[in-house]
Amino acid sequence: MTDFVITTPPTPAIPVAGGGAFPVRRVYCIGRNYAAHAVEMGHDPDREPPFFFQKNPNNLDASGEFPYPAQSEDVHHEAELLVALKSGGTNIKLEDALDHVWGYAPSLDMTRRDLQGQAKKMGRPWEIGKAFELSGPVGPLQSAADVGHLDAGLIELKVNGDVKQTGDMNQMIWKVPEMISYLSDYFELAAGDVIMAGTPSGVGPIQRGDEMVLTIQGLDELTVKVT
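Structure for FAA hydrolase family protein, as requested:
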């Protein structure tokens, strides 16, 4: 046993519907994976090679509350499907990719858009805008054995009852198996890794007191209050 010199930090985890928890190792997030969102962010929606950034495992939060973060006046919602892996490896073949999926959950990639914009202009990494505390609200994971593999169906976010984002998972430029296979060419994936699969168009600002409700067809709803 390793004799750690400080108290071991808690293991970040996502609750599982029906009981238990899924330990999180890494969080990979794909950028601009819906064509309409690429357009609204000022980019060509043609199928270019995917790109990824990361959040920290302990950024994921299932409390149902999102504290408005410090140092920002322009925080945006991004509704996303989260994919949780039960196994991994390198150079995973496309036809084998879904064998590594444990399950799925609704999630939000909350973004300090003003700080992200400053980083983009200066050619710097995005973490200051993406990987801050509690920036990944998430609902309970549901197993693929129970819900199947999600490759089509509604993804919709309402803020205070008004639809802000809507799309279909079949509009993803890079599908879930492709994301897994691509990532495995550059990283050694492993059990506990999760992938946030991109957001449809309609991203926009939230304010303290707002209520966000994310619906993904086949999964339980995620409700998050901005505090």
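The mean pLDDT is 95.
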